[in-house]
Amino acid sequence: MKTTHALIFFQYCLLSGLYYASAGDTLAPTQSIRNGSTLVSSGKTFELGFFSPGESNNYYLGIWYKSFPDTVVWVGNREKPVTDSHAFLNISSTGNLFIFDGQNTTIWSTNSSRAARNPTAQLLDSGNFVVKDADADEVTESYLWESFDFPSDTQLPGMKLGRNFKTGRNRYLTAWKGVNDPSPGDFTFRVDDIGLPQFVLRQGTEKRFRTGVWNGIRFSGLPLRVSPLIKNIFVAHTEEVYHMYEVMDKSVLSRVMVNESGLLQRLVSYENTSEWTNMYTMQNDKCDDYARCGPNGICKINQTPICECLEGFVPRSEREWPVLNWTGGCVRRTPLDCLKREGFLKIENVKLPDLLDFKFDERLNLKDCRAECLKNCSCTAYANPNHNGSGCLMWFGSLIDIREFIEEQSEQDIYIRLPASEISDEGAGDSIWKSRRTVIITATSIISGLLALVLACCYMVCKYRRKKKEISRLPPPKEPGFYVERSCSESNVSGLRTEPLTENAVTLTMEEGR
Ligand SMILES: *[C@@H]1O[C@H](CO)[C@@H](O)[C@H](O)[C@H]1NC(C)=O
Ligand SMILES: *[C@@H]1O[C@H](CO)[C@@H](O)[C@H](O)[C@H]1NC(C)=O
Ligand SMILES: *[C@@H]1O[C@H](CO)[C@@H](O)[C@H](O)[C@H]1NC(C)=O
Ligand SMILES: *[C@@H]1O[C@H](CO)[C@@H](O)[C@H](O)[C@H]1NC(C)=O
Ligand SMILES: *[C@@H]1O[C@H](CO)[C@@H](O)[C@H](O)[C@H]1NC(C)=O
Ligand SMILES: *[C@@H]1O[C@H](CO)[C@@H](O)[C@H](O)[C@H]1NC(C)=O
Ligand SMILES: *[C@@H]1O[C@H](CO)[C@@H](O)[C@H](O)[C@H]1NC(C)=O
Ligand SMILES: *[C@@H]1O[C@H](CO)[C@@H](O)[C@H](O)[C@H]1NC(C)=O
Ligand SMILES: *[C@@H]1O[C@H](CO)[C@@H](O)[C@H](O)[C@H]1NC(C)=O
């Protein structure tokens, strides 16, 4: 990137006798920013100016980190480069920004929401480039225009990604076309707000990855990443739905970006280091590829091959499945027959399938959800998507993009509708399942009872022996039975969801899942 230093620019100003915006953070109507001159935000975090990526002779208006001039976080005229080196930016008396080329031709301009009397453009220390009326108050609502409304490939702290229903604006990320080409590439990352909101990465129109729905504290399809550094904020109501994050330590820089190959990364840089480190890539493994195992398949990363059919389903094509082509997915071994008895099989710790044909009822709990699903012959599965145990999500038709999680914390279960015959075949049917569970639990209770008794006996014997040997003050063995108790309550007989573990509640503001 070719950015001339402020000093050279300053000399240029002196020599040319022209007044250009100097290293301040604001641009007024009499000023302009051109080749070599920049704005620097008040805290010296960000810089704005023209840059030319790689070997190209295209000039773009961009915002980059002052300490990382190669890390461009926003590009204004990404679709309309200036092809000569005389690009300049200024602001009109009504508050619109203009980029001109050497021929004074308008290359790019903004469209402010309203006219200003005394407009200025300012590069804020958040990296937001805003146009405001100097006469108006300094609140976000007073901006006539802001670069945060037009994201490039990077989400900065404090920047909302999502839709505003009032203005109709949808803010989303679009990857660069190439490392040296900031024009919009194929990959977009945006909120899908049909019903329950989730974020989806697309290549063109094809879905490639999704975060899963917001469960109240995090995106349920992402592995749990607890970081005290990042505070995620998600807002969904009638006016807008968006995701935003904050960095809790002011000395740390962090950004989220979608790179040219469609990978979503969170990067961090600490004050005294001069490099970015990849905190994580959102796409964790092959099971995160959208619909990896086809309809009604489930992806299990610790298994070879990684794809299998959901229980009660078989590969659609006996030819494709063995050659590891899973796109065709799976079909039911026994068709559903609504008149006969049917039940549900619980699958634990999964990423819920995509919301293609679904229904969401906020008011129903899990038990009512089951009854509701059972009522409708085309309901194929149900789940409780909220972390607090409320809400009923029902699917109709094929189940697409299910994966198993390795971490235990996810706690997301789904109940798949199956004919009674399938459930008893698998030894895990509804009523049969219930009785089996009861038997298992009873057996476990007896065993644990016996175990406790044995241990108690041992303890008594030990104590007795100890006393006898006159070795006292040794800690008694720990009380047995906790594991058994917990697993009993977890393998909940009625299928009612257990309350989320307290760990989850504690990490509420610390979840890093985006
Ligand atoms: C703009 O910058 C390029 C390289 O930095 C230089 O070759 C060119 O002369 C500059 N143009 C002006 C108008 O300053
Ligand atoms: C933009 O800046 C140039 C000087 O760099 C000036 O001649 C021109 O009038 C300005 N245009 C507007 C609309 O302010
Ligand atoms: C562009 O406009 C400026 C002032 O508005 C003028 O001095 C300059 O000659 C113009 N350049 C061209 C190539 O027309
Ligand atoms: C600017 O916005 C107004 C309404 O918001 C619209 O009518 C107009 O066409 C827009 N102009 C440009 C250049 O986009
Ligand atoms: C449960 O969480 C959802 C989503 O966060 C929320 O809309 C709902 O009001 C909560 N319900 C209860 C009973 O807390
Ligand atoms: C995108 O990010 C991934 C993960 O960090 C990296 O391996 C890949 O090289 C990046 N692609 C480009 C084009 O930079
Ligand atoms: C960065 O600074 C902290 C103290 O502020 C120090 O502990 C750490 O070692 C430094 N790291 C590097 C890479 O210099
Ligand atoms: C995989 O199977 C699908 C049909 O289910 C077919 O269209 C596709 O060409 C196959 N892919 C490969 C690589 O053979
Ligand atoms: C079952 O649900 C589907 C999808 O919501 C709906 O179109 C259909 O009318 C429902 N059938 C009955 C009998 O309620």
Task: Walk me through the structure.
The model is unreliable at 1-21, 425-443, 461-472 and 474-514 (pLDDT under 50). The strands form ten sheets. The chain has a five-stranded antiparallel sheet. It has a four-stranded antiparallel sheet with strand order 1-10-11-12, with no helix packed on it. The chain has 514 residues and is of the alpha+beta class. 16% of the residues lie in helices and 34% in strands. It has three domains: 14-149, Bulb-type lectin domain (Agglutinin, subunit A, Orthogonal Prism); 151-284, Agglutinin, subunit A; 297-433, Hepatocyte Growth Factor (3-Layer(bba) Sandwich). The structure holds 2-acetamido-2-deoxy-beta-D-glucopyranose (9 copies). The site of one 2-acetamido-2-deoxy-beta-D-glucopyranose has 2 residues, from loops. Residues 1-23 form the signal peptide. It holds the Pfam family DUF3403. InterPro entries: Bulb-type_lectin_dom (IPR001480), Bulb-type_lectin_dom_sf (IPR036426), Pan_app (IPR003609), S-locus_recpt_kinase_C (IPR021820), S_locus_glycoprot_dom (IPR000858).
